[in-house]
Design brief:
With 274 residues, the chain is an alpha/beta fold. It has helices at 28-32, 70-82, 133-145, 184-190, 200-209, 232-259, 263-271; strands at residues 18-21, 41-46, 49-56, 59-64, 87-96, 106-115, 129-130, 150-158, 195-197, 213-223.
Length: 274
């Protein structure tokens, strides 16, 4: 039987254990285009959830779009985990909030500030949202190998695009940013948070609580401090760079799993009945 939202089953995904998670459904075939021999195929598309299947280093892999925000991300991750997927790499876009980060750079997230609501349905707010070490290391090594300008650090992960990221270019403007979010942008900057995005805290907490592996790489399409505007040419190159880094990282993880199987992931799957 297919999962309710993703419309997938183990047969459709050929028991793939590795998944890329972009937000945008239109980005799914772009990522799948970097799979081995470009022989990937679309296997499902329901609502915001679009999935393609292919191979990397001879291993079945999938790419599934999550849509925007923690709620839809939680559905995608949970249903993929039900099918036996244990390793996830989010590939997305972000807005930087530190002045030394340029449009076109990529950010590899070590941990996320939990400004979402979905993750508290999986664990209490005191539980940290952190990337899996092995996925994080693979992303960094992949970025180094591609000689890409990258930054590693903490991300603020908000369920809302406007108030949660203290944006005043919204319908409400300055009128309805609640008091606890007023000044939050400056506070995160002072606490050395690198950027805003909308899915990583949910992904990280779900993965950790379910004994899965997850990492996140995002390309910078705007800098809120320097007021750098979105440059379509630069961001197009940045998106391709982040995809290549994610592909390289997944290749490393697959190769490592073949030579030194991750006992923690195996045990986690066994406990959940797979």
């Amino acid at each position: 039987m297919d999962t309710y939202h993703l419309c997938l089953n183990e047969k459709k995904i050929k028991k793939a254990k590795y998944a890329f998670l972009p937000g945008d459904p239109e980005r799914v075939p772009n990522i799948a285009g970097f799979f081995d021999e470009h022989k990937s195929i679309e296997i499902a598309w329901n609502r915001e959830f679009r999935t393609w299947l292919g191979k990397i280093n001879g291993e079945e892999v999938i790419v599934t779009s999550t849509g925007i925000g923690g709620s839809s991300t939680s559905i995608a991750v949970d249903e993929l985990a039900q099918l036996g997927v244990h390793t996830f790499i989010r590939v997305g876009t972000t807005g930087a909030i530190q002045k030394d980060i340029d449009v076109g750079d990529v950010i590899i997230t070590t941990a996320s500030v939990r400004l979402d609501g979905a993750s508290i349905h999986y664990c209490p707010i005191e539980y940290p949202a952190v990337a899996n070490y092995y996925v994080l290391h693979a992303l960094v090594e992949s970025a180094k190998a591609l000689d890409t300008r990258y930054h590693v650090g903490i991300t603020a992960s908000s369920d809302t695009f406007y108030p949660g990221q203290e944006r005043y270019d919204s319908f409400s403007g300055y009128r309805y940013i609640i008091k606890r979010l007023q000044g939050s942008l400056k506070e995160w900057q002072q606490l050395n948070v690198l950027n805003y995005e909308m899915e990583s805290s949910t992904l990280f907490t779900i993965a950790s609580t379910l004994n899965l592996r997850a990492g996140c790489i995002t390309e910078v399409i705007i800098n809120r401090v320097n007021q750098q505007k979105i440059n379509s040419k630069i961001t197009k190159l940045a998106k391709e760079k982040s995809i290549k880094i994610a592909i390289g990282a997944m290749k490393r993880l697959i190769d490592n799993d073949k030579t030194l199987p991750n006992k923690r992931v195996k045990d986690g799957n066994k406990r959940s009945g797979r």
